[in-house]
Amino acid sequence: MGLQVYFLRHGETSFSLSGGFCGELDLELTEQGKVMASEFAQAYAHVPWQAIFTSPMKRTVATVTPLCEKSGMKPHFREGLREMSFGDWEEQARDDVKSQYLEDYIRWMTEPAWNAPTGGGETAVEVANRAMPVIAEIEDTCIEGPVLVVSHKTTIRIILCQLLGIDLGRYRDRIDCLAGSISIVKFDEHGPLLQCLGDRSYMSEVLQQRLGT
Predict the structure, then answer these.
(1) Domain coordinates in residue numbering, the chain
(2) What dihedral do alpha carbons 41, 72, 80, 29 form, nearest 10°?
(3) What would the pLDDT profile of 52-98 be if each residue is shown by its tens digit?
(4) Which is the CATH superfamily of the domain at 3-83+126-208?
(5) What is the 8-class DSSP label of residue 28?
(6) Is 194 helix (H, G, I), strand (E, B) or coil?
């Protein structure tokens, strides 16, 4: 069977609905986000998970908790799976950031691999440098069977770009990752193979209509 890694983005939050910048903010899930977590657990409790790795932020922990309760497994918390830091842009709407930090915003939109949000935010390269060691750990310790990684929109997209050989500066242009979505990568002799991207079919139709950014 080989190693398969399931990348699960956390369930809906108020900022995934609004599209505002939320990296270091430690948000709770919305009520609908909690239902997403419950439906994921219901759909995937039968999977013979070999390990579960998660960002330690509240929204990711709340997303994986129902599955852990059903499966009896304990998650491994990894700081490297946290969301990108958006510096001074945290908690702000995109239009407000454009008006206050226009030059920095243009640079970030043009080349986010090397340009960071204003005030100590992270570049895509910096996120990759802390996230990819977690993937290397999984490859070293989980040779067989499915592994679950619960993380965030930007972090998952950057990891997938790194695995698939896509320019990190294009992570927003090449990879979509809605709230609660699952992407699957298989590791074999030819390297990482993308088997599924952004799937939300486990959710009820009502939840699938919630296009959280």
Answers:
(1) 3-83+126-208
(2) 40
(3) 999 999 999 999 999 999 999 999 999 999 999 999 999 999 999 99
(4) Phosphoglycerate mutase-like (3.40.50.1240)
(5) P
(6) strand
Of the candidates 138, 133, 131, 127, which has an alpha carbon nearest to the alpha carbon of residue 185? 138
Given strand 3-9, what is the order of strands in its sheet? Answer: 76-77, 51-54, 145-151, 3-9, 182-188, 191-199
- Beta strand residue intervals within the chain, DSSP E: 3-9, 51-54, 76-77, 145-151, 182-188, 191-199
**Spatial CA neighbour of 152 closest among 57, 67, 75, 77:** 57
The pLDDT assigned to 2 comes to 87
Q: Using alpha carbons, select from 20, 25, 53 the residue that is nearest to residue 151.
A: 53
Intervals of the chain under pLDDT 70: 1, 211-213
Q: Is the pTM of this model over 0.90?
A: yes
The tokens for 206 are 């009502």
